[in-house]
Hints:
Blueprint: H1 2-22, E1 28-32, H2 39-55, E2 59-63, H3 70-77, E3 85-90, H4 91-100, H5 108-111, E4 112-122, E5 124-128, H6 136-146, E6 151-154, H7 160-172, E7 177-180, H8 184-193, E8 198-201, H9 207-211, E9 215-220, E10 246-254, H10 259-273, H11 276-284, E11 288-289, H12 294-315
Parallel strand pairs: 1-2, 1-3, 6-7, 6-8
Antiparallel strand pairs: 3-10, 4-10, 4-11, 5-8, 5-9
Amino acid sequence: MKKTLATLLLAAGLAAPALADNWPGRPVRIVVPAPPASSLDVIVRTLAERLKDRWGQPIVVDNKAGAGGMLGMDLVAKAAPDGTTLGIGFNGPIAFGPFMYRKMPYDPGKDLLPVVLTTSQPNVLAVPFNHPAQSVAEFVAWAKKEGGKLSYGSVGNGSSSHLTMELFRRAAGFEATHVPYAGSPPAAASLAAGDTQALFTVAPALLPLVQGQRVRLLAVTSAQRIEGMKQLPTIAEAGFPGFEALAWNGLFAPAGTPPEIVERINADVNAALKEPAVQEALGKQGLIAGGGSAAEFRRYIEQEGRTWGALIRQAGIALE
């Protein structure tokens, strides 16, 4: 009996690496809970170009925007836990959602496995190019003068884009109406058209509109100025000391995915993120390459939930 047990344990120990070595065995789908050309889409497609060679299989990028990112992440949560369906999640449907939604179609902490942090980046405060405000101070003065007639866009209910403006609005003391969109492209388009008057989002979706003189950037939400946009002051520098809000995202797998497959994906994404060409491509979009272990990513998500959960409760944000 002892010999049989030892043999089984040895076989199990050998099977785990073999499972990871033989994975994926078929094309890998990465669900992007945002539209094409969004920052999440850019990140996944940049990584997919490197990962397809490492995995020896095509990578299918599946854009499923809607419900503040929950539509796409629900698909991941309910997929077969074999590592061939992944999703790129972000603050909203992962760390913020449990504090805002009365009911979610999945439990982020139970139904999804954090695999690796892909990038983080500050949001930028943007206004239409013809807006009278040329600075944060001028924008706040204008917003107060508007007396609540201001409407601001976001990339979705409960997103970092949404909550960053709520945090800023409360710090600056002005009223505004929230208009959520399904991702950064439509939110940016509404701003450029003047349908909304302000937007916090990550830079990539806005850069073509900035270059086309349809949108103006006023500040960034990081603690320090960022490479490539050194001319932009931080919100903290602009009169709100201590203000910081980062958008982040990372890959997730369905709960139940074997640990050795999660480790394999984590290792390969970490390797891709360390490539100078990848870091340069991401940096040009205002993105900071992430990385680290799955455990570190999980701890970071838990910390974000504690930090922003308090704001969500204070602001009384409740979504159906």
